[in-house]
Design goal:
CATH topology of the largest domain: Dihydrodipicolinate Reductase, domain 2
Mean pLDDT: 93
Helix content: 25-40%
CATH class of the largest domain: Alpha Beta
Number of helices: 14
Strand content: 15-25%
Shape: globular
Largest sheet: 9 strands, mixed
Low-confidence stretches: 1-5, 8-29
């Protein structure tokens, strides 16, 4: 079977290492001049990203904001205004606070140099495309798509960004953590030998839910509760677990050739929870027979565990986000634990993004952010259908989760996947 589109280790590592190679820079943001930033998606993550972006450079301003909902935009604006470190960096006039379906386009056209894309993941491909085509630098939260057509679009757009000398920095923030970078150097230098098995666990409890209000249409309701609808979030193994899957891909230096798995709705099965599952278990296989075992669960009252373990022929590495939670074990050798300086990786990704813009060396994380998103989608395809899914099938899938129209009123149907019955498209 032809797996030519699954990046191998050599190509993957070369691409990752080259992600910050200099390209001709868009003149409008180079040098020491003012950088104008636009925020598209004003929820909690968007507000956080805006705060971090504005603290990443001394001459930067937030000049435009956009969201589907006015109340979220206003709350975000007020929250940012209340942060002392951002004093003098918020300059968003009423005329540049945009709401509705075309808010993203209005932000892009408002005269900004850089945009922060933090809406529900479904919208990421179209927003990245619009921003890059308009010559804007991009920070794109993870994941960057919810289906294969979206991934293919992002890959194409990120190549255009490279040609135009524009930044595309990914919200896969663990790649910007000091401890994560340190342990990856050890893994890639062969400290634990040849890798053969990786474990990605994401066991956590329940999350937020917003009660329906009398004036909400079906579309309004789904967008307010976007996390629970696959067309908007990709399911939680894509929306959240993509972090740990990306760490595994970073360690391994390549992507798997096939996957098989199980999943379902054991406890989170009421209609209010849309159509996503509450657990997924996927076994990915690499070209050399190595395995990635991925387990995710969102169930209240159960033991939590969010971690990655990398097992090689000469030892293993344990990688978590907890302080001092990065360790390497080798037979007969005292375990190594990262004890270097801690950093806020959410802040560092913006620090490095704007430093790259200033230096004329834009960062482009496009390849790995798109392929790691596809890795998560591939796992969902396996759990939803009950079939074995190859990388090629996942990448070339025709399944498009986009709604027929973007308008208030009826929302897209939300059928719950039934393994063995739901078709692989």
């Amino acid at each position: 079977m032809n797996h030519s589109n699954a990046p191998d280790r050599r190509t993957f590592l070369k691409t990752t290492a080259a992600s910050a190679v200099a390209a001709p820079l868009a003149v409008h943001a180079a040098g020491s001049g003012l950088i104008k930033v636009g925020l598209i998606g004003c929820g909690g993550r968007g507000t956080g990203a805006a705060s971090q972006a504005l603290q990443a450079d001394s001459n930067i301003r937030l000049t435009a904001m956009g969201d589907l909902f006015e109340d979220r935009l206003n709350k975000s604006h007020d929250s940012l205004q209340a942060i002392p470190a951002l004093k003098g960096k918020i300059d968003v006039s009423v005329e540049k606070r945009f709401t509705g379906w075309d808010a993203f386009q209005q932000v892009i056209e408002s005269g900004v140099d850089s945009v922060l894309l933090t809406t529900p993941p479904h919208f990421r491909p179209m927003h990245i495309k619009a921003a890059i085509q308009a010559g804007k630098h991009v920070f794109a939260e993870k994941p960057v798509a919810v289906d294969a057509p979206g991934v293919r679009s992002v890959l194409k757009t990120c190549e255009l960004a490279r040609e135009k000398g524009l930044s595309v920095v990914s919200g896969l923030c663990l790649r910007y953590g000091n401890g994560f970078r340190s342990v990856m150097k050890r893994i890639h230098n062969g400290d634990i030998g040849d890798l053969h098995t990786l474990y990605a666990n994401d066991y956590r409890g329940s999350i937020w839910y917003k009660e329906r209000q009398p004036d909400w249409t079906d579309m309004h309701y789904q967008l307010r509760n976007w996390y629970y609808y696959t067309w908007l979030s990709g399911d939680f193994n894509v929306e959240q677990h993509v972090h740990n899957l990306d760490v595994c891909s970073w360690a391994r230096g390549e992507y798997p050739v096939q996957a098989i798995g199980i999943g379902g709705r054991e406890l989170r099965n009421e209609p209010k929870f849309g159509n996503i599952f509450d657990h997924h278990s996927v076994i990915y296989e690499y070209a050399d027979g190595g395995r990635l075992v991925s387990n995710t669960r969102q169930m209240k009252g159960c033991k939590g565990n969010i971690s990655v373990q990398v097992v090689g022929s000469g030892g293993r590495a344990l990688i978590t986000e907890r302080k001092r939670g990065i360790q390497v074990y080798k037979t007969g050798v005292k375990p190594w634990a990262y004890d270097g300086p801690e950093n806020n990786f959410y802040q560092t990704e913006h620090d490095e993004m704007y430093a790259g813009i200033r230096a004329g060396k834009p960062i482009n994380n496009g390849q790995y952010m798109a392929h790691s998103t596809l890795l998560a989608i591939m796992g969902r395809m396996a759990t939803y259908t009950g079939q074995q899914v190859t990388w090629e099938q996942a990448l070339q899938s025709r399944e498009d989760l986009s709604p027929p129209n973007y308008e208030w009123g009826p929302a897209p149907d939300a059928p719950i996947a039934r393994p063995g019955i739901t078709k692989l498209v």
